[in-house]
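User: Quick sanity check before I run a bigger batch. Here is a single chain. Can you write out its predicted 3D structure?
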Amino acid sequence: MIALKNATVVHVSPADVSVGVDVLLDGTEITAVGKGAAEGVRAERTIDLDGRVLMPGLVCSHDHFYSGLSRGIIARIASSTDFVSTLQNLWWRLDRAIDKEALEASGLVCALDAVKAGCTSVIDHHASPSYVEGSLSTLKECFEQVGLRGILCYETTDRNGTPGMEQGVRENRAFAQGVEAEKKAKGKNRTVEAMVGGHAPFTLGDDALGKLGQVVRDTGRGFHIHVAEDGFDPSYSHRFHGKDALKRLDEFGLLNDKSIIAHGLYLTAEDRELLNARNAFLAHNCRSNMNNHVGYNAELPHVKNVALGTDGIGSDMLAEVKFAYFRHRDSGGPLAPGAFMRFLQNGNELLHRSFGEHFGRVEKGYKADLIVLDYDSPTPLVRDNVAGHAVFGMGSRDVHTVIVNGKIVMEARTFRMDTAAIYAGAREAAQRLWKNMDNLD
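Assistant: Done. Predicted structure follows.
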């Protein structure tokens, strides 16, 4: 048992602040919360937080850990004048160049960076066409080595031919089956779940969607895919399939209440109605959309379930929520900071639907996924201004300690592993990866 004493417990949505609270963790869950709850308790560890902020862990609802070695990339990348050419010249070359060694390096540094930023869970959308079979298990090992919670899938696509597509389908099925077996064996002690992944509708034919739909039905998992990130995707869907992109996915049974549609900038009104009717999620990735110059999703107020992701630009969700709010304001949007706190909180609902356990509250019976912030507030921190503090104040620099599934992963900004060696290995792997990209046809 771990006893956390004298915490300032903060919830972002619904907003709440409680001062001088004790929190008890036993196994993977929170077992008691309240003033004086730690008095007389014989715990293995008793930590006096001295008034520091204690919050539920943050969730990144759409990420790409395979992009971890792309930062500052030095490789021969052809000039890219639009979104599709950027995919072809950069990202599709990068994912083809990834081997097991590069994936291990990328997965480890991305997991470390996520924890440093207070992100306790990442929903990852993986691609490595030259290393498909076993890639999700490799990524899972990276998550587990660092102590990060995750939901993983493989980004199935037809762009590498039918054999590559079928490999992707098999990898999704095999990984989901393995996770299901682990669920029966480990129960609440597991930290990695599965989804079923596809790249985007414009790189998936009907045969691929049919096969993926069967995996979704057989495994009971959600589907994770990019849709309408750029105007090309819906245009392609209408030209070659005569229908909206989400209608096409829905016809193959790919939309359910565990599914994630990433981006969705150019969804039609009918698409949004269908998304809402299926109770699925839209993952908003503001910084990525700005970087790719694809436009802004002004329809967020009309989507039932919005969550926040990064699309591979790290896992700093306190930075992401700031950009999401400021870009919305810049577009003339009507939403206040509290709405973006709700979007951030929705990642915990995704975890709940996938893991079948309770996430996102510092309350008895909830998972012990928690972060401690060393946040020096210059103004009172109270229920009515939590969103303002999160958007205009709190940052990853404040993250002090991170707990995942009841285990301390990082304490006082220090990991219990040699992180210097991991980052050194990543720098070497990055140079090899960039050379691999240059050698591709």
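The longest strand covers residues 15-26.

User: Great, the batch can go ahead then.
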